Amino acid sequence: MKFGYFDDANKEYVITSPKTPLPWINYLGSENFFSLISNTCGGYSFYKDAKLLRLTRYRYNNVPFDSNGHYYYIKEGDTIWNPGWMPTKTDLDAYECHHGMGYSTFRSSKNDLQAELTAFVPVGKNCEINQLTLTNNSKETKDFSVFSYVEFCLWNAMDDMTNFQRNFSTGEVEVHGSAIYHKTEYRERRNHYALYAVNAPVDGFDTDRDSFLGAYGENSAPEVVVSDQSKNSIASGWAPVGSHHLKVSLAPGESKTFVFILAYIENPVEEKWIGRAEDGKINRTRAEALMKEFDTKEKSEAALAELKKYWDELLSHFTVSSSEEKLDRMVNIWHQYQCMVTFNMSRSASYFESGIGRGMGFRDSCQDLLGFVHLIPDRARERILDIAATQFEDGSAYHQYQPLTKKGNSDIGSGFNDDPLWLIAGTAAYIKETGDYTILDEKTPYDSDPSKATDFMEHLRRSFHYTIDHLGPHKLPLIGRADWNDCLNLNCFSTEPGESFQTFGPSEGPNAESVFIAGMFVRYGKDYVEICRHRGLEDEAKLAENAIAEMEKTVLDAGWDGEWFLRAYDHYKNKIGSKECEDGKIFIEPQGFCVMAEIGLKEGNCLKAMESVEKYLDTKYGIVLLQPPYHRYHVELGEISSYPPGYKENAGIFCHNNPWISIAETVVGRGNRAWQVYTRTCPAYIEDISEIHRTEPYVYSQMIAGKDAPNFGEAKNSWLTGTAAWTFLDVSQYILGIRPDYDGLTVDPCIPSTLDGFEAKRDFRGVTYHISVRNPKHVEKGVASMTVDGIAVDGNTIPLPTGKTEVSVEVVMG
Q: Domain named Glycosyl hydrolase 94 supersandwich: which ranges (predicted)?
C-alpha cells in the first residue's frame, strides 16, 4: 500500500494522505541552521547543536504523536484547519505534502480556500522561511483569519524538559511591530536570541502559551483561534510562544502571500547587552537586516530557487541512467540526499534521536564520509580533522563529540575498540576521492587540546597501532567496551556463583576478542599501507603488511567456524557466533567485513561464508543480524539479549550492514545476489509495502523487525543511519563499480545478469567522466575491454588525464 508517489523530475516525494503510518519527515538546512518537518508540519528547529541551541520544542512521546510543530491555523467562520492537517485534524478537501531537497511544500484546501505553504532554510542563512500563499477559489469574497504558532525552547533542550523549578521563571520576549523576539537567558550570559516575524502588519499577537491555548487548552483548538481574537500577551516566565494574527480578505480568484521567518540571531560580543542597560532591550540590528532580505514574495522565491539550484549542482557529481527506474531514482536523488543529511546530523536529531544524547559519533561520522566525500570534499576534510581531534594519545578516541563545541563527550567516554580504525577508513576515502595528501601534514590535537598536536599522519599511525597493541589470547583484536555492535558487551565476570555480573574496567585486563575488528584491521590496514608508501614510510608499511598477514592467518586459524566466520570470543574464551552456541550461532558482521577484506578468498572461505549468510540469515525483507535469536537474557553477553527476538541487535534486520553483504557478494563475483541484497532494503523497491514498513519510503531506516518478531518487516529509526553511506557506497562503487582509487577511477561493475548495462556521469578530481557500460553476454562481473577517449587501455583503471575536463569511457563486460 502506498501513501504517495515519487516525482523524479522535481526530486520530490509527494505524500497524498496526512495519515501516514508514522510521521514522514524531511530536513531543512545544510549548513548551520536546521529544521525537521513532518508531513503534517510537526517538527522543530535548532542552530548547529540540537541539544544546546534548540529554538523550538518537540515532545517525542506526546499523545497524539507529532503534535508540536510550526503551525498555521486558518479560521473561516466556524471552520478551523491547518495546511498540514495537524493539529486540528480537520478533514481537508485536498492535501499533498511535497518533500523535496531541503524544502517541503504543503498544498491543501478547505471550502474553496486553497493554502500553499513552503518551508525551507535559505543557503547561507540561519533561518527558516515559511511562505504561505492563500487563494480564494470560490465565487464569493472570503474573510478569514490566519494564526501562526511556534513554541520556543529555552535553548538547552535537556534542561528545558527537566529543570522546571528554574525555567518556569526565565522566559522573556519582546514584540516590535510584526516581529517577536525570544530572548530568554539573554540577560544572563548569551548574545543570541530567536526571531519570529512576518512581512505584514499584524492584527494581534501572543507570546504566552497559556494565554494562547487557554486554561487546560490544547493546540488542536487554541482559545485564541476559536475566539478569533489575539490577547497580545507578553510572556513572563512559564512557556514563551510566538503567534501572529492576520485578518485576510480575498476576492474571488485572488491570492495573497505572507512570508514568515524563524531565525537564530547572534550579535558580535562587542554588541552584547551585558545585563546593566537601563531598558534591558536586545540589539535588533541584525534581525532587522535579515527581515529585509525576505520581506517580499519575490525575495523568498528567489532564495528558494537558489536552494534548488544548490541541490541540483550538488547531486550532479554522480548520476546514472539505466533501464532500472528505481535504481536511477535512488542513486541520482535519494541515496545522496540522505548521505548529506546524515553527514550533517550524524546520529543527533531525528524523530528517533532526540538531539540530546548522542551528538556526533566517531565511527558514525567516519562512515558517513564514505557516502559524502564526493559531494563536498572540503567539508569532508574539515570533518576528518574534527574527528581526529577527539582522539587520545594512545590512539583510542571519544566515542562521541558535540557538534557545537567539537569536544569529546566525557559521559560516554572511550573504549570502543573499532573506533580508531574508522579514522583510517574515512581518511582513505577522502584521499582516494581528492588525491589530497596534504591533510596528512595538518597539525591536529589530541583530546581537543591544542598543546597536544602532531601531524595528522601520526594520528593514523596511532590508530593502526592501537589494534596491534590490544590483542587478546588468540591474537585477535580486543573488543573493549564493544565494537560496531555496541550491545555486544563480552567483558563480564562474576566473583561468586549466584552473584551479579560486572564489567571489567580497562585496567583489569578484559580478554574478549572481536573477529569483526580483525576484518576491519585487514581491510583498512591495506589502505594504511598505501598511505605510508606514498609518504615514503617504507619501514612502517612493511611492519603494517606483516601485521596484516599475521592477522589474516589468525582469523583463518582462530576465527573460522567451518562454514562461516566467528563473531567473537568472550572474556573466558567462549566462542560467540559458532555452531557450538545454543543461540546466536552466526552473525552478519564478520561475514561482511572478513569477506570485504578478502580473508580466505583463494581458499574458498569467502564463498562459504556468503552461502551461509544466504542459508541462515536471509529473509524477504533483508538479512537479519544473527540466528537463532537469543530467547533468554544472557547477562554475560551484555545488552544484545535484552531485546526481544527479532528486534534491533537480537536478530533484527540491521539495514546498516546489509550492504556489507552486498559488497562482499561483489568480492566473490555474485552480481545477482549482490543486487538481491541491495533491493530488499532499498526504499524505492519496497514502497509498495509502506503499511508494513511504516517509515518513510524514500530513505533508509536503521532497523527492520526480523523474521522472529511479531511485526516482521516493520522499520524503525529512519534517516540517521550508517545505512545511507554504506548503501550508496555499495551501489555506486561495487554494483555499478565506479570506484575512486589512489591512482585513478576504477570501473569494475558487478551487476545482475539481466541488466544490459548503464550510462553514468562521475566528477572526479576536476574531470567529468562519461562512462558507458555494456553487458552483451549478460555476465555478473568482469571487464573484457575498456577504451578511454577511443583508446584501448589495459586493466579497468582509467589513467589520470592531463589537461582534460571531459573524458569518455567505454566498458564492455565479459
A: 11-294
